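Recall the central idea of this unit: under ordinary conditions, the amino acid sequence of a chain determines the structure it adopts. In this exercise we apply that idea directly, starting from the sequence alone.
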Amino acid sequence: MTLKGFHIFRFLRKILASIFVKIFFWFWLATILSGITFYILTTVTESSTISESRQKLIVHRRHLTGQTMALYGEAAIEIFERKGLKALNNYTERMEKTTGIHTYLFPNGLHSLAGQDPSPQVQIMAERSLRSGKVEFGVYRDTFLVAQPMFNSQGLLYIIVGEVPGAPPQPVEPFYRLPADFGMRMLITFIIGGIICSWLAWHLTSGIRKLRNATHSFAQGDLATRVRPQLGNRRDEIGGLAREFDQMAEQIEGLMTSQKRLLRDVSHELRSPLARLNVALELLQQKTGPEAETSLNRIRREADRLNEMIGEILSLNAIDGSPEAINQEMVDLNELLQEIGADADYEARARDCGVVLSISETAQVQGSPELLGRAVENVIRNAVRYSVAGTSVEVGLQGIHDGNQTWAVISVRDHGPGVPEADLEKIFQPFYRVADARDRQSGGTGIGLAITARAVRLHGGSVKAANHPEGGLIVKINLPMLPTV
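Accordingly, the structure predicted from this sequence is:
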C-alpha cells in the first residue's frame, strides 16, 4: 500500500468510526427499509384487493353470459324444431347484429348444422361441454367462448356455443410488477431520508462534539473551560453530562489553583530562610578555622541545591498554563540547538564526554524561546549526567511529515544505563526517580524532565523516552513545525 493510500485508509477509518456517521447511517438505513417495507405491504394489499375484485367480476360476467346463452339456446332450439334451419339462421343473424354474440347449435351427435361453419375452437368447446355435462368457458384471442348443454321438451341433447366479442379481465398475481417510476420514487425517498437523518444525527452529536472540544481544551491546560453556556439549557442526558463536566472542571481547577498557590507560597517562604542561611554561613566561615571548612562547604552545597530545587518548582508552576499565556514568536531550532549544544559540550568535557549535533533540516516553530530552550537544555544536561565517560551525547534534528502536519523532531541519545521499561513514561513526572538513580549527585532534582514535558505540551508537541537498541536512553521531542517559505 502506498503512503497516499495509507493516509486515505486512515481517514476513511476515522470517518467510519465517528458516532455521527454511525447514527446517520443507521437512521438512514432504518428510514429506507421502513419506506420499502411500507411500499411493499401497500402494493401487496392493493394487488390482493384488485385480484379479488377482478375475480368477482369474472365470476359475475360468466354467470350473466351463461344465463344469456341459456335464453338464446331455448329460443334457438324451439325455432329450429318448429320452423327449420332457415329460420334458425335468420334468428342467429339478428342476434349477432343486435348483441354481437354469434351462436352455434349442435344437435345430438355434435354435427354442425348446415350453413353454420363453426371454427375448430368452437368445435372443441362443444366437445368439452358434452363430456363434462356443464357450462364451459374459454378464451380464444379476443373472443370469449361459452358452451352450454341443453335439452328440448322430449329430452334430446343440444349444445349451444356462443362467441362473445371482447375477452374478460384475467386474474392478476398477488404481487404485480413494480411501476416504471419505482427507481425515481426510491431515489427521492433516499434523498429526503438522508437530509432528515443527517440533521437528526448532527443534532444528537453536536453536544458530544462540544464536550469533546471542551475536554481537549481542558486537557491542554485551559482549566477555565466550561460547556454550560453552550449546553446548559439542554434537559437530556447530554445536558446532564455537560453540567457534571463543569462541576468536575470547577473542582479540578480549584484543586490545581490551591496546589499552585501552595507551591508558590512555600517556595517563596523557603527562599528567605535560605538567604539568611547563606549569610550566616559566610559569617561562620570567616570566624572558624580550616578544620570546619569541609562541613561548611557541604552545608553550602546542600543549600545551593535546595535553592535550585525551589527555583525549578517555581518554573514548573509558572509554565503549567494554557498556550495563550506564553509569549509567541518564531524560534529557529537550528540556532537554539547550536547554542545549547555548545554550552553543554563545554560542561561535558569535565566528565570526559561530549555533545555532538546532527542537524538534517532547517526547522522553525512558534513559541517561547526561553521555554523551548529550557526544555531542550534539561534533556541534554540529563543525558550528559548519565553518559559514560569517553562517550558523546548525540543530538539530532529532522523533519517528519505526518498527513497535513510537519513535525520537527529533536532526538537526544546518551550512552548511559538506560531506564527500566516500566519507568519510561514516569520519568516526566515531578520528583519521580528511577530506583537505581535516587542519589541526588547523579539524579538531579527530579524536576527537569517534568519542566520539559510541560513546556513541550504547552507548544502543542509531545515528548517520549525509549531505550536505544544499542544501549542508553533516547528522548524525542516533537514540535509542530512552521511551513517553510
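The domain at 326-480 is CATH 3.30.565.10 (Heat Shock Protein 90).
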